[in-house]
Amino acid sequence: MKSIWAVVPAAGSGRRVGGEIPKQYREIAGAPLMEHTLQALLRSADIRGVVVALDPSDRRADSIASLADVRVQTTPGGGERADSVLAGLDALHDRASDGDWVLVHDAARPCLGFDALSALINQVRLLGEGAILAEPVADTLKQVSSEGRISGTLERGGVWRAQTPQLFPLSRLREALMRCLAQGVQVTDEAMAMEWAGEPVHVVEGPSSNIKVTVESDLLFAELLLKKREAGTL
pTM (2 decimals)? Predict the structure, then answer.
């Protein structure tokens, strides 16, 4: 592994959270959500640079102080997550070298801890293959019909809930995403694209605190976690 870059897809509107302001700009713990996300990445000396894919019509980015960091650049994102990630990879294409890796992280995961990020990077260096942060599923899983009726209970052994960051060889991830988009494969994360391309993907256990803000209540929980970390009680 040579250099590690990061891509943050942040072109979405966050409709499930609600409100007039996209969730990445909602203020929690004294700063916009995405500011916490970028700071979590920039704390790592292993990350050479970060590309943030934004909505081309976005006029709120000036509220994100970390976008002025010399290691950060922006690029126009796309309509779907995969489009924005690919836009970020394209922006790195001329800067990155053969053998460089890329770490993709959700803009709406502001509580990424330094230890979890370091564990992912260290494990990938050890394996020489891609990996993601993930959490084993602890709840009982139910198969439910479109009418809301339970049709069965699923075996939860070996089932993990994917998180981000997800870390892969930059050129191979770019090629996998390009092929998926060209063939109409709907991918929901980068690991899925790499799986589809036949690439190995490992999991590194991530903490439950590495939540993705999806609904309004997640904002309150994320703020609580960030304040606990700042106070040294997490």
Answer: 0.93
